[in-house]
Design brief:
- By secondary structure, this protein is an alpha/beta fold.
- It has a domain of 53 residues.
- It contains 10 helices and 19 strands.
- The strands form 7 sheets. Strands 7-6-5-8-9-13-12 form a 7-stranded mixed beta sheet, sandwiched between helices. It has a two-stranded parallel ribbon with strand order 1-4. A two-stranded antiparallel sheet has the order 2-3.
- The protein is globular.
- It starts with a helix and ends in a 25-residue tail after the last strand.
Amino acid sequence: MTREQIRARLSAFRFFQKFELAPGVITNGQNPVEIYTPHFDLPMDLRGKRCLDIGCNDGYFSFWAEQRGAQVLAIDILPRRAFFFAREVLESRVEFRQMSVYDIHPSEIGHFDIVFFLGVYYHLKNPILALEHIAGLTRERLIVESEITPAPPYSANSQTAGEGISRFYEGDELGADASNWWVPNVPCLLQTIRAAGFPRAELATCYVPSRAIVRAYKGMRTSSMSLTEDYMIAVDTPASESVVSGLVVVAGWAVSQLDSISACGYNSPGVARCRWIKQFNQLNLRRRMWERRTRRPRATSPARTAGRGRGATGLTGKEATGGPQGSASPEGWAVQDRSPLAVVRQPAFPQRAGPSSQTRP
């Protein structure tokens, strides 16, 4: 395809990412993404590496990694016509899958050496959950770019000090964009990344006061480690005849961390294991009964399931929209415009008529 042919077709597509599609041909996007890559600290030769681009948008970072030899999988909650046009122009072999970050799992898509998580964090209602999913399939490093809440003075060195705080946006108060949920400061961004399973996270740059790029790394003992919530701090095993409400036989009682140290001994296997997990920041500990077979399955009616506020996409509320700057056309494609965000599939809860009228599931 010649440059003249590319220019002639380019006007039919709305890009969000602004980059050079061909020599002398620049996309009509608003976000100059080419300024990000110098801060990634990645080698020019990525042959033999697998790369995952989460929230790929128009695909610039996917194509950037592929041109350096990586095998790339790009995912997003909605496909963008601009992505496929760019892939055609660049004769790319990047694979695209329509899926949410909450749905990624090594059994489905494998493990990756490098993961891009750019411009997604603050659009998620549960960013730590998403980071835990990412940590479970990352071998080496994660690159995160996010909106941040800056602290004066506005320099990169000053942003890493202080208490970790994140601001929650219930509506569209930030940029008139209802897909924004959590905007952390830099300490909080680093802390959540480490807590999710990346022992080392460092600020690469704040290229503008309200945006940051972070590089995070897996350790030798945590590379490709799948994460699970089914860990207990310790258990206090009662007598076999113990019952609850006269019906359910109790196989184990959950006790607090402090109680477990005194009752079980500080060097007991359960406490030592938890100390190791905490040391390597692998997961958020949950106090649960370790014997799950004692639980009775709870009947769930279709009406109850529908009332949880999840559409067919598995996303809730603002996440079931066309993305950070888009809306959904009738065909289900994400397009770039400034019109109000449209829900892809109608969720089960009423939609917002004004800033204070939305009902959260």
